[in-house]
């Protein structure tokens, strides 16, 4: 038996307490009432979490307040579903367009046709089951990282600045082309004194969002350094980059167009997709996160297809080889090996 714990931050320190063998089931009780049954999954199926705990995966869950997390991976049980259905306003049926064609991850109008077919035929592998893409949001202090995440996840905006201490995160669930897909949005601290704590959470990111304030040229100038730090913990060939200018509501069109030129130039150089938005007014916030979710989803499905494609290639060779040749090859290998 295990217990649930309330807290405003993911209860990462509680995770070891909840550790169980993969496949084991437990009841979760709150005030002595069974509120859920859970099964534990091997962490290898939960990409993006290894960096945090190397153990188990916290999920927000139904019946408790939004700020409550359990150090557990959820499971569907016959009588009760742990996760609520994907919200209707998180359903993505078309590829959201980029902000500027001059600086985009790609400028295609539609999802990759292989991805669309795979979704129709339900051949998306682990995507749609446990796949969670980790997104880290980095940038100078007070550029608006927390407000950006809060505007999207909670439709809230706080005009008072409260520095992020270390990291915080939100889970956002989507349905892309009919397939469930989640983003784990990591809000990291921009303040120098918390940077070393925050950077320990960079690893395993599939998407890096570098945020700057469109009214603060210096914050754009620091973008390269943030990227460099984030890439120390990640494989540069395997991440999608976004350069995001915030607080667009505070700048005049003339001021904005000036910084936009520099931002697009930098985005092209670092191969990032450029966006400008306002968390105060909400301008482009939803569009931006939908684009992030869609591109991460597309990349994940393509990676799954590649994996399953290489398995098929192996199978074909086995089936098509005639038995004599196989024997001859293996003999030859053996004799080489003994020489
Ligand atoms: N006008 C306006 N103000 C914003 C916007 N986004 C953020 N702010 C304000 O900017 C300040 C800093 O915002 P935060 O989101 O806390 O900044 P942060 O980047 O998370 O800061 P750290 O946690 O220290 O790294 C707050 O006072 C916000 O209200 C925006 O789009 N428009």
From TrEMBL:
Membrane topology type: Lipid-anchor
The keyword ATP-binding is annotated on this UniProt entry: no
Chief localisation class: other
Keywords attached to this entry: Acetylation, Cell projection, Cilium biogenesis/degradation, Cytoplasm, Cytoplasmic vesicle, Cytoskeleton, Golgi apparatus, GTP-binding, Hydrolase, Lipoprotein, Magnesium, Membrane, Metal-binding, Nucleotide-binding, Phosphoprotein, Prenylation, Protein transport, Transport
Any one Gene Ontology cellular component term annotated for this protein: centriole
EC numbers: 3.6.5.2
Catalysed reaction equations from the record: GTP + H2O = GDP + phosphate + H(+)
Family annotation (PROSITE patterns): RAB (PS51419), RAS (PS51421), RHO (PS51420)
UniProt cross-references to SUPFAM superfamilies, sorted A to Z: P-loop containing nucleoside triphosphate hydrolases
Cofactor: Mg(2+)
Keyword Transmembrane helix in annotation: no
Superkingdom of origin: Eukaryota
Catalytic EC class: hydrolase
GO molecular function: G protein activity; GTP binding; metal ion binding
Stretch forming the signal peptide: none
Subcellular location: Cell projection, Cilium; Cytoplasm, Cytoskeleton, Microtubule organizing center, Centrosome, Centriole; Cytoplasmic vesicle, Phagosome membrane; Golgi apparatus
GO biological process: one example: cell projection organization
Subunit structure: Interacts with RILP. The GTP-bound form interacts with REP15.
Similarity-based family: Belongs to the small GTPase superfamily. Rab family.
NCBIfam families attached to this UniProt entry: small_GTP
This protein's name: Ras-related protein Rab-34
Species annotation: Coregonus suidteri
């Amino acid at each position: 038996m295990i217990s649930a714990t309330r807290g405003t931050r993911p209860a990462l320190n509680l995770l070891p307490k909840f550790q169980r063998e993969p496949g084991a089931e437990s009841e979760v009780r709150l005030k002595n009432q069974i509120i859920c049954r859970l099964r534990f999954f091997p962490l290898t199926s939960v990409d993006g979490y290894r960096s945090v705990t190397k153990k188990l995966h916290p999920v927000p869950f139904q019946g408790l307040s939004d700020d409550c997390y359990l150090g557990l991976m959820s499971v569907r049980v016959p009588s009760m579903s742990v996760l609520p259905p994907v919200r209707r306003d998180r359903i993505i049926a078309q590829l959201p367009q980029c902000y500027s064609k001059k600086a985009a991850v790609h400028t295609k109008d539609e999802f990759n046709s292989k991805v669309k077919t795979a979704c129709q035929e339900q051949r998306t592998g682990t995507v749609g089951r446990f796949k969670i893409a980790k997104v880290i949001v980095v940038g100078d202090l007070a550029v608006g990282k927390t407000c950006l995440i809060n505007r999207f996840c909670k439709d809230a905006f706080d005009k008072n600045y409260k520095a992020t201490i270390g990291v915080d995160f939100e889970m956002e669930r989507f349905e892309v082309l009919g397939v469930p897909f989640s983003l784990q949005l990591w809000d990291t601290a921009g303040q120098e004194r918390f940077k070393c704590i925050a950077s320990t959470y960079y690893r395993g990111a599939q998407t890096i969002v570098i945020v700057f304030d469109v009214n603060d040229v210096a914050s754009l100038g620091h973008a390269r350094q943030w990227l460099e730090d984030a890439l120390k913990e990640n494989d540069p060939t395997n991440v999608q980059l976004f350069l995001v200018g915030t607080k667009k509501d505070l700048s005049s069109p003339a001021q904005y167009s000036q910084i936009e030129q520099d931002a697009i130039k930098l985005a092209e150089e670092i191969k990032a997709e450029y966006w400008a938005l306002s968390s105060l007014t909400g301008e482009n916030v939803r569009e931006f996160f939908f684009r992030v979710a869609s591109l991460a989803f597309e990349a994940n499905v393509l990676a799954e297809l590649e994996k399953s494609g290489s398995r098929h290639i192996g199978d074909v060779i086995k089936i098509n080889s005639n038995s004599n040749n196989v024997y001859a090859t293996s003999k030859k290998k053996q004799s080489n090996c003994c020489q």
